Amino acid sequence: MKLAIAVYGAPTSSEAPYSALRFARAARERGHEVLRVFFYYEAVAIANALVVPPQGERDIGAEWSAFGREHGVELVACIAASLRRGIVDSTEAARYGLAAHNLREPFMLLGLGQLIEMAASADRIVTFAE
Amino acid sequence: MSARYLIIVNREPGVGTLAREAIDLLLVAGAFDLEPAVLFMGRGVLHLSRPAGRGDGEPRPLDALATYGITRLYADAESLRRERLDKAPLEPPATVVEGDAIGRLIAQSDVVLSA
């Protein structure tokens, strides 16, 4: 089955990013294809490379990055939601004259249209909202 | 035939960026000519109530839905009762649906997205 995953909940106040990652891993282990994971609302904080969790706490951003690399799954953060929250890639940093960029590898910044498109391409879209 | 989209709005308005981003998702779906149906549930039904003190002529993001071809709006009857909106006019107008009808609405949709 082709799956798409949408994550909305913040990593600092929601289980959504953790639950979504466990679901994605389990889906891959059972032979399902994960087409793309789309992060929206406060979940875009996952894509911030400058977050440093305290020692002993899980680094959910790093775990998502590792999952994306290992399985070749597209990790997409909504560009509008990311810009609102200070998460930019090199292209957007140059566009807005910002001094630095902080998008975590291998995340991409893309528009909401990608969420709509992946919902149509997948057999199922599963949302982790809160 | 193109896929039938249903977008469910649970988020209440008036909580800043999150509420605005929920409406953004609707408008983008409209911009793609998907003509999605929209179901307001939970605190999301508050989108259909004009806040007290707000002028009648003052535009809200939700007022743009028709411009984007989004005209099939539904509101969960139970949520309206819970929020004491069951006797109030809904703005923009939405069809009030009970539990069974919500199930049919979801079953008839090819893609169901939460906003």
Low-pLDDT parts of chain A are: none
Q: Report the order of strands and helices of chain A.
A: EHEHEHHEHE
For this structure, what is the CATH class of chain A? Alpha Beta
Gyration radius over CA of chain A: 14 Å
Count of individual helical segments of chain B: 3
Give the helix level of chain B as a range of percent. 25-40%
**Low-confidence parts of chain B:** none
Number of strands of chain B: 5
What is the quaternary state of this protein? Answer: heterodimer
Sheet with the most strands, sense and barrel status of chain A: 5 strands, parallel
Description:
- The complex is a heterodimer of chains A (130) and B (115).
- With 130 residues, chain A is α/β, with parallel strands linked by helices.
- Chain A has a single domain, classed as Hypothetical Protein Ychn, Chain: A, CATH 3.40.1260.10.
- Chain A is 36% helix and 20% strand.
- In chain A, strand 1, helix 1 and strand 2 form a beta-alpha-beta unit.
- The longest helix of chain A is centred in the N-terminal third of the chain and has 14 residues, at 16-29.
- Chain A is globular, with a radius of gyration of 14 Å.
- Chain B contains three helices and five strands.
- Chain B has a five-stranded parallel β-sheet with strand order 4-3-2-1-5.
- Chain B starts with a strand and ends with a strand.
- Chains A and B meet through helix 3 and helix 5 of A and helix 1 and strand 5 of B.
